[in-house]
Amino acid sequence: MTLDYGRPAPPEKANHDHIYTTLLGVLGFFVLIGMVSLMRISKRLKDSDGKAVISLVLGVEGCFLGAIVVGLVIRLAFPPYRRWPTFGLNIILLMLVPLGTVLGIYGLRKVDRRVS
After folding, report:
1. pTM of the predicted protein model
2. Does some domain include residue 81?
3. Which residues form the domain of 42?
4. Residue 7's pLDDT is what?
């Protein structure tokens, strides 16, 4: 019995860009569902303070959804120019706890890396 000291086979490359874009779309869908739920709750409230708080949360969620949609459009329509907008989107997503934080860290570590 002899040992094979040859080079190991190169690992298969994971397509992190495709995975990230898909997860970004899923996160956008989840944010949209949360916004719809908050709107329905807001219509049932009779207290004006409660409506004000929910409208504030809806505004913040709307900003996150807008950033996600813009990031998706740039990633899908303009692939050569997506590196820096994606970096900015990942910084913004760090504030969207918990799923946005996870996706933002994944995007900062794995997505749009130049191959050396």
Report:
1. 0.84
2. yes
3. 16-110
4. 79
